[in-house]
Amino acid sequence: MLEPPQSFFPSKEEFFRLLKVLLVACVVAFTCNFLAKSLSSNPTKSFCDSNYDFTNSDLDLCEPCPINGECYQGKLQCNLGYKKQRNLCVEDGEIYESTKKLVGYFERKVCEAYAHNECYGTGAIWVPENDVWKELRSNGLNNLDESAYNFLKGKAVEGVTELLEKRTNSNGIDELKCPESVAGSYKPLTCRMRQWLLRHILIISSTCAMLVGSAILSRKIQRKRYFSRRVEELYDQVCDFLEENAVASNSADTSNCEPWVIASWLRDYLLLPRERRDPLLWSKVEELIKEDSRIDQYPKVVKGEQKVVYEWQVEGSLSLSKLKKQRETQKKVRKSIDSSTSLQENYNRRIAG
């Protein structure tokens, strides 16, 4: 069997050259096909007239006229407030922003008047709609023509009607009112605080009365406790003074000391200057002194004047304050003894161990 010669098969360079030729041929064929279809295709369809009847007509002949637009002789004209975008009429963004500003102006104008009436009693609750439009026409909308102004007014009226309350008065004039929920944000802070206080005056007054009453009652209780502690403290001081005076009078070193003490002198000696203005304080101390059998109270002429004197009658006794101090000292001694005993026991255990 004969084998084909090596020159029968294409070389590597010839094979790549063939591929390039085929690729160029495909690109040329595709381009020619596209151009042929583009040249032979129908031209862009025009718009159907707005009054065109589609019932018995072929829709392939023309494009239906879009919403918010007018079509005549194949041309599209968008209505006022809309602009053309491809085959549609979309809302103009500038018109939308202008309408939004107008509605905001109406809200601010009407709500500020209502808030001023609520806070200060001046201003109108119902604002005539035409007055606001006249102010807008003379200030901000004087550069618009009549058709643009009417269209913008119609769009704004729709938004105002949704936001504000509207009525027609007996004279046939349309009036606007700000809702309560919206008017609150236009009131000054001081006005809102005053109205809140008026609405909650009963709760606030009762709460303040309870707080003041609680403070007064607490103050009275504190003063009563302080008064009782001070009476007991003065009584203990009287007992200590009289007892020490009695001991001193019986001592050989102080033979000139009298066993009695003038009550008025002792009072002025123990009381603070501000406490001398309160006669009730010392009268309570005198009641405790009269009930104490250890203290004798009797009148005595001192330097030609009649005085009331106190005298300690019990020898070797201890007053309440000294008894308390003695008991506290005994407790401390007992604790120290117990602690030293426990330390000694622990020491002995360690030695024994």
TrEMBL record:
Residues 331-353 are annotated as: Disordered. It is found in: Nucleus inner membrane. The chain crosses the membrane at residues 15-36, 196-217. It holds the Pfam family MSC. One of its GO terms (molecular function) is chromatin binding. The keyword RNA-binding does not apply. Residues 61-312 form the Man1/Src1-like C-terminal domain. One of its GO terms (biological process) is nuclear membrane organization. Its main location: nucleus. GO terms for cellular component: endoplasmic reticulum; nuclear inner membrane; nuclear periphery. Keywords: Membrane, Nucleus, Phosphoprotein, Transmembrane, Transmembrane helix. This is Man1/Src1-like C-terminal domain-containing protein.
